[in-house]
Amino acid sequence: MNIIFMGTPDFAVQSLKFIEKDYNIVAVYSQPARPSGRGMKTKLSPVEKTAKKLNLKTITPLTLKQDDVFLQFKKLKPDLVVVVAYGLLLPEKFLLTPKFGCINGHASLLPRWRGAAPIQRAIEAGDHTTGSSIMLMEKGMDTGPILSSKSINIHTNDTSKTIHDKLSNLTAKMLVKTIKDYINGKVVPIKQKDDGVKYAEKIIKDEAIINWSLPSINILNKVRAFNPFPIAYTFLSGVKIKIVETKLCKDSHQSEPGTIIECNNKIIVACGNKSTLEVIYLQKSGKNVMSVKDFLNGTKISIGEKFGS
Fold this sequence. Notes:
Elements: E1 2-7, H1 13-22, E2 24-29, E3 34-36, E4 41-43, H2 46-53, E5 58-59, H3 67-75, E6 80-84, H4 92-96, E7 102-106, E8 112-115, H5 118-124, E9 129-136, E10 146-153, H6 160-183, E11 198-200, H7 216-225, E12 233-236, E13 239-249, E14 260-262, E15 267-270, E16 276-284, E17 290-291, H8 292-298, E18 307-308
Parallel strand pairs: 1-2, 1-6, 2-5, 6-7, 8-11
Antiparallel strand pairs: 3-4, 7-9, 9-10, 12-13, 12-18, 13-16, 14-15, 15-16, 16-17
Helix pairs in contact: 1-6, 5-7
């Protein structure tokens, strides 16, 4: 079995490590190194970095649409291609080349949350469960038949980071078993249902600003979904404040949304539908994340002041 692995971010690293132990990986495809961080230094993707440590052949094309890129792919004679969060759409001729096709490890219970940001969108929507799906790839975006799936609970204290880590590990374990069962004919692909389709659009930084007119549960979910990136934020007296962690309150209010209704050792904010939200951790621009207590020690605010845009 010659396997090509395709992946880019941290999420795919565990899958690469697990598969490499049991199978012959002839090449690892990843998106090319790009400038990142404050110094804009060029960094290898987490998958490429891991592949090099494992002494695996790495290939990092900017696009898969060029003929020479496809010829290089074809010469590797893959029996199976495994894709986990690669970030580039595979043209149909790539999908048709391997004997066993291409399979994809996806961080949702398909057909719910097809697309780029399934973990964040599931938390933002207030879903109580999510999971991983292993599917056979076809031309459409995450539309292929399912080989296996497994669910996990989303707890109220989960963030995108904690769910990311859980599903990264789960996907890796599932892939190893599913590959074995699939090539041995022990698993039959099941067509995805037509109902329940939901698309997880890519996260845009501008989405992170908090709309205090929403009910507190919606804001809580957004804060959890956007942690660790891009982090939900608001403004106080023109200063940008990132809201890192919050907690629902039972109190109701008669104030305008965004109004600070308590700021004595804790910050409680008025939200839509007369609901309230307590801020637990926050961050000023250029500062470290701090507790509300530490924030209040260095920042004077009064009841009646408003968070807003």
